[in-house]
What does this fold into?
Amino acid sequence: MGLSESTFRRLQAIVGKAHCSRSPEECACYAYDAAGGRFFPDAVVHPERAGEISEILTLANSKAFYVIPRGSGSGMTGGAVPVRGGVVLATSRMNRILGIDPENLMAHAEPGVITAKFHAAVEEKGLFYPPDPSSSDFSTLGGNVAECAGGPRAVKYGVTRDYVLGLETVLPTGEIIRTGVQTAKGVVGYDLTRLLVGSEGTLGIITRMTLKLLPLPESVVTLAAAFEDPETATETVSVIIQHGILPRTLEFMDKASIECVRRYLKIALPEKAGALLLIEADGDADETAKVREKLAALCRAKGAHVQTAPTPEAAQALWKARKAVSPALFQYAPHKINEDIVVPRNRIPQMIRRIESLKEKTGLFMASFGHAGDGNIHFNIMLDKTDPGALKKAEEAVAEIFDYTVALGGTLSGEHGVGITKAPYLTKEIDPAALALMKRIKETFDPNGVLNPGKIFPTQPALPGPA
It folds into this structure.
């Protein structure tokens, strides 16, 4: 639909000419995210304050153009791409940690803060922020909140929503609201904070967060348990939980993932392993020492070869391997379909069996890894999407896995969100009445449909015309 020259000049006046561009080179940098696909924006703006975002959205309503909020573009479902054009609003300049409060165990931060930098800052003060998506070295806190990011530590500590006490948010119509509390409790009015967390940038643009912190655990132990086959490995997950042990992480890698990372990083991983569990426990030193021995014994009882990381550096190397799985898969094919299904923990072996049978049936390269401790499996298909036959097989395999996920009592996404890639499958999980209610909520927040169109609800009406 494009932007008129006068509207573009007004955007420049709001954020400054240096922070507003419509050059092809700049727009190309914001045309994609980690999901793949390219959708070029009409312009890119880099605001610094909530007031500027308010002005941009007010202008968008009056001039009928779309606004697409974006953090680092690390999302896996196309949530930050301008599928209908419009203005990408990047939060990279809003990157300040506004305060860390050790007495009240909370922090205040802007959305463009890199997650790993936030981890480091709070840990310097002896504090702990548990959410740790694999993209933490480059993802932003605002993007984590918008997607309700999880990560390996979710099995013990929960996901991003469990650490968001309050938000400052600019609504699609330009109003600035503050939700939530700065206290341990608060039940006044509807919980708008929880509604905004995980709304994928469709209900508002987050400009400030109040985040809950915990004391930093005294000790962390890391184990790697290599199993002959993936089913035994995933069965061991339930065995560990049944014995009253709640590890801080309980990660799974199948044989394809292990082989892939070994080649990619050229590091020593168990050569004959059919699957690997990467397990961490934390607490005081005596507690973790006891838990380490119990974990090792339980894994060995299931036939695993167990190694304990002797140093923090050795543990870091194991985590480097785990976090490298996703990019390493591109050794096998130019394109990836990456789904993050979740099933009840005791149903993981059944899901792994179904994936293995699909490999044989389709002949496609598939790899599974992820957060087995909470049932969240990242199911990946590597292929060349220019091959129509392979693409058709892959799409059919995804549909089959989604159907089986729901049949097992699971959900189609544990942390990646819906975006554009999962939108066609939404009705497999959400019933018509609930979906209609969600659409009405979207229309209430965004009556003119200017904010992040085409996400979650791909049938959202188009704007009336060019600005």
